[in-house]
Structures are given as structure tokens and as C-alpha cells.
Amino acid sequence: MLVEPEQLKQAPIIESDREQLIRAVIEEIRPNLQRDGGDCQLVGTEGSKIMVKLTGACAFCKLSSVTLESIQARLVERLGEFVRLIPVAGVGNTRH
């Protein structure tokens, strides 16, 4: 029975570290996007899905799919697991 509570304690820490790593990867990319008048923000995570919002020039850029693929590849590399980056449209319409 001692193992079970210990596992419950570790799960939020692991998720927290995972989210911090995701945020760090996005923060590494943001300066390049901002130089071109765009930006990328983490909206949330749901299992292997990572939702991001492209803003500014990135929102309508023809190369946004290339940007998303690049961010996704870096996330897969750093996390060591397959994740899918999903662009989310809209302004402030998400409820938590």
C-alpha cells in the first residue's frame, strides 16, 4: 500500500516537469518568430496533444505549417516521445 500513494505523488511532478520542458522549447523558438512579427503561445496539453496559438504574422503565414513541424520535431526530440502539435485559432475563447 505504500507504493500506491508514492506513485500518486510522482504523477503531478512528472506532468509539471513535462509542461515546463514544453514551455522551454516554445520559449526557445519565440524570439525567431517575434523577429518576423509573429509569436507562438502554449494553450494547453492533453495527453500527446500540445495545443498552441500562432499570433501576429505567424497566424496567416504560408509557412506556418513548416514552423509548426519544426516546433513539433524539437518537442519530440526533447520529450523523447511522439507528440502532436495542434494549432488553435481564436482569441480568448477557450475556457479552463
TrEMBL record:
Transmembrane segments: none annotated. It comes from the Bacteria. One of its GO terms (molecular function) is iron ion binding. Residues 22-84 form the NIF system FeS cluster assembly NifU C-terminal domain. It holds the Pfam family NifU. GO terms for biological process: iron-sulfur cluster assembly. InterPro entries: FSCA_dom_sf (IPR034904), NIF_FeS_clus_asmbl_NifU_C (IPR001075). Belongs to the NifU family. This is Nitrogen fixation protein NifU. It comes from Bradyrhizobium lablabi.
